[in-house]
Amino acid sequence: MVYFVGAGPGAVDLITVRGAELLKKADVIIYAGSLVNPELLSYAKKECVIYNSATMTLEEVINVMEESDKNNKMVVRLHTGDMSIYGAVREQSDILKSKNIPFESVPGVSSFLGAAASLNAEYTLPAVSQTVILTRMAGRTPVPEKEDIKLLASHNASMVIFLSSSMLGKLADELTAGGYSKDTPCAIVYKATWEDELKVVTTIENLEKAGRENNISKTALVLAGDFLGDIYDRSKLYDGTFSHEFRKGTNG
Ligand code: SAH
Q1: Ligand 1: residues within 6 Å at CB?
Q2: Domains of the chain with CATH codes
Q3: Candidate of 89, 113, 162 to mutate for ligand 1, largest count of ligand atoms within 8 Å of Cβ
Q4: 246: exposed, middle or buried (C-beta count within 10 Å: 0-12, 13-18, 19+)?
Q5: pLDDT single digits (tens) 79-123
Q6: How much distance in Å is there from the Cα of 109 to the middle of ligand 1?
Q7: How high is the mean pLDDT of the chain?
Q8: Are 222 and 200 in contact (CB under 8 A)?
Q9: Predicted structure pTM score
């Protein structure tokens, strides 16, 4: 059996209980060494065999899974954050399926949630935005044209931009070209929830400068939108005059 497990954004205690239990039981762990906190490996039992996938190809990863499965060994494939976001997990599970190797996925706390928590921010503020866009700038992996940052920015929704902290100038240009004003608040969160986390709140206009001054060019998220500002409506859910399924409001 192969378990795809989300390791969480960084802090060791932000893996799920289920994920930690599987790490304790695993005979083999293949972890994404570039971003998974190696302290998580201390959950592993003594005889567990550990591989760092940072230096492996897809075929090599699959070979380890296949050999382990043949020998009735339980494998945990440990992905950073949650594997459903830029996790390259589908290509693995499809091959496992074709080889009749059973697998299951256990979610993790994605870094975009870790970053919001670090800022005590809410992406979905009433009267500001009710939508979160998770995206990236095109790099060596292309992004479909229709998902150009400019087009996505035209919604003025809450945006989280992954894998783009080495292109902050270009990112800021795209965000403003798409319709965000230059003074829209944005944040760079480097290594959210790790001990050396760094967070900078700035404006789109000053995004590149903020990145440069803080030496951030990787392992960071950019959050952009008025949800980082101070103007919003309070929720209806907790409004005393508003009735709903569980509570009668003062206005009936
Ligand atoms: N599956 C992961 C994302 C993997 S892509 C998740 O759910 O978070 C790798 C990119 O994610 C990095 O380049 C960076 O943009 C972001 N990232 C991952 N962990 C991060 C963290 N702790 N803090 C900030 N950004 C992080």
Answers
A1: 9-10, 35, 79-82, 85-87, 110-111, 114-115, 162-163, 189, 191-194, 219-221
A2: 2-106 (3.40.1010.10), 111-228 (3.30.950.10)
A3: 162
A4: exposed
A5: 999 999 999 999 999 999 999 999 999 999 999 999 999 999 999
A6: 11
A7: 96
A8: no
A9: 0.95
